[in-house]
Amino acid sequence: MLHLASRSPRRSELLSRLGYTFGTLELDIPEHRGSAESAGDYVRRVAREKAGAGLLQVMTNPGAVVLGADTEVILDDEVFGKPRDAHDAAAMLRKLSGRTHQVISAVSVVNAAREAQVVSESQVTFATLNDHDIDAYLSTREWDGKAGAYGIQGRAQVLIAHLAGSFSGVMGLPMFETARLLREFGIAPGSAQP
Question: In whole angstroms, what separates CA 190 from the centre of its chain?
Answer without folding.
Answer: 23
